[in-house]
Amino acid sequence: MNAQGWFPTLICDFQSQTHEQFKTVFYENMKEYVHPDGIDGEHANLTFHHNKEFDFLFKEITDFAKQYLDTLELDPNDWDLHLVKCWWHSLDKNHIPMHNHSDAHLSFVYYVNVPPGSSMLHFQTETASFANDLTRGMFLDDFENIYPFKKHNVFNSMSVSYEATEGKVIVFPARLDHMTSVHEGLDDETADVDVIKKRRISISGDFVITFKNPKHVSMGLQPVKNWRNFG
């Protein structure tokens, strides 16, 4: 038998080489980035990437995204990667439900601080588009390792889980559904940096990719300089 696996989903993880530098500066100046009401994530600020003192980190993450494109046989030199929004979370027990970032093209998460017992990151493909799912849901994982097949392989995997590791950056398709593990209880909103520093801290962001130069092709966003606004 000649078995071939087609239509896979690409998720890449990298180890940040600037992690210690970033964490030191971030922790020393954390009060500047904490919302006075103690809220974080998308509801607090979507412009974390505008802090120029962290340009070195976002340049590194952009390079990781270019490596992702290269793996897809897309020449990174043909594309501009626009980091359009970026935010950070500090979580202990709070759970992030299943969602996606389908208004963008590529997403990333970077783990700044990971205490023991931190939530895992779970990805799940769309059931409607997974042709190998013979009875609609047969290969869905309940994230407790209970499923009706012997083991995961490239042909039956509809979901995968990544352990949070300090310094790890994960790059994935923005439209891919994902969530974190569920824990009992909820976190208190706090602006106390001493409390926040002990939680799992992650930074997330979204890229929109456009051609660097005009391309006479039907698919792919043309360069921003080609855009016009008549509103």
Describe the fold and architecture.
The structure is a single chain. This protein has helices at residues 19-28, 55-71, 193-196; strands at residues 12-15, 79-91, 106-113, 121-124, 159-162, 168-173, 177-180, 200-211. It is an alpha+beta fold. It has one domain: Jelly Rolls, CATH 2.60.120. The relative contact order is 0.25. The protein is 13% helix and 24% strand. The model has no long low-confidence stretch (mean pLDDT 90). The strands form 2 sheets. A 5-stranded antiparallel beta sheet has the order 1-6-3-8-2, with helices on one face.
Q: Kindly provide the radius of gyration, computed on alpha-carbon positions and rounded to a whole number of angstroms.
A: 19 Å
C-alpha geometry: globular
The computed structural class is alpha+beta
N-to-C CA distance: 58 Å
Give the oligomeric state of the chains in this entry, treating copies of one chain as homo and distinct chains as hetero: single chain
Helix content: 10-25%
Mean pLDDT: 90
CATH topology: Jelly Rolls
| Beta-strand content estimate | 15-25%
Adjacency order of strands in the biggest sheet: 1-6-3-8-2
Order of helices and strands: EHHEEEEEEHE
Per DSSP, the total helix count is: 3
CATH class: Mainly Beta
Largest sheet: 5 strands, antiparallel
Q: Which second-level CATH architecture applies?
A: Sandwich
Counting structural domains, the number is: 1
Low-confidence stretches: none
**β-strand number:** 8
